[in-house]
Amino acid sequence: MKQFSKPILCIILFFAAFLQQAQAQDPRFSQYYASPWNLNPAMNGVFNGKWRANINYRDQWGSFLSPVPFRTYAASFEHRLQLGYGDDYASFGIGAMHDEAGTARFSQDKIQLGGAFLKQLTGGRNQADHFLSAGAQIGFGQNSIDWGRLWFSRQFDSNTETPNTSLPNNEPNANATSKSFLDFNAGLLWYAVFENDGFFYLGGAMHHLNQPKISLAADNNEILYTRWTGHVGGQFPLNKTVSLLPGALVMQQGPSFETDLGLNLRYSNNDFNELALRAGAWARIGNKLQKGLQTDAITVVGMVELNHWMMGLSYDITVSPLTQANNARGAFEISLTYIHPGEKRARVVCPNF
User: Fold this and answer.
1) Domains contained in the chain, number
2) pTM (2 decimals)?
3) Would residue 352 count as lying in a domain?
4) Would 353 be classed as within a structural domain?
5) pLDDT single digits (tens) 241-268
6) Nearest Cα residue to 143 out of 174, 171, 180
7) Domain-located, residue 325
8) Neighbour-count burial for 178-205, b at 16+ CB within 10 Å, e otherwise
9) Structural contact between residues 93 and 112, judged by C-beta atoms closer than 8 angstroms
10) Fewer Cβ atoms within 10 Å of its own Cβ: the N or the C terminal residue of the chain?
11) In 10 A of CB 220, how many CB atoms?
12) In this structure, what CATH number is given to the domain that contains residue 189?
């Protein structure tokens, strides 16, 4: 029987350590502000328009895992309604996510319905508008593995020194998938919009409040940890055309902790058919097993806003010890947002994340 080569053995050991740390964790986006549905249920309806549609795609570690890198797809749709004649709103939406990882295509799938209520706290002519939004999501999820992509030691043919997948693997949990599980999320968001088109926001959310069971094995002991999220940011105009958009995100889920912080620079022509460009850099810091907090990646971002469309492109440059394997080539990400305008043009009462 042939022995494993040293590079293959190193890759196996690396992913054994990675999966132990990433067990029962959620997928994430570097452009978290361009994926509001997955960031905080209270961001449902926080936009200027009648309805909003979002699409996000992430491709991670394709430099050394091709043709099976980690991939994440997400989409959402939200529709909001004005309540009465003021600036109170109700919003309803639906979102879905698919994440797959590795040769066995370990997949996480979920679909959720959500709603939020946006209440104006204070505001009026020549003063800032303050709002509070409360939102919740409920849905279903399921995890699975494509067992047909795996082979086991019992299926190794010593005569040909190759795997023979037609042989029985005799694995007790082969072809297992998790049961469909109920999932519940909730969040709050406060934001203020100023006369000069600046804004400031502060929000928090709890995902998987019911800690659903997601085991692929028969013991059904594995749970999806509750994830808490805090995020803060804003837009601060420097003049009529240039603004700074700083932000910070803090998350913890089980033993895993992560924070993202950075800054986008926005230039706008301030025309009726607005064209705006954004560019920025963000740092991601997380705990690495027993080594404490370390910088994992630097994300460079470019975004284009045209009328009611916004598209963002970003790339994660790895700065952790993983650079020895991927030569600093991390993850590519794209986001696309469309906001359908309301029936009548109204003053801005929502942040433009």
Assistant:
1) 1
2) 0.85
3) no
4) no
5) 999 999 999 999 988 899 999 999 999 9
6) 180
7) yes
8) beebebbbbbbbebbbbeeebbbbebbb
9) no
10) N
11) 12
12) 2.40.160.40
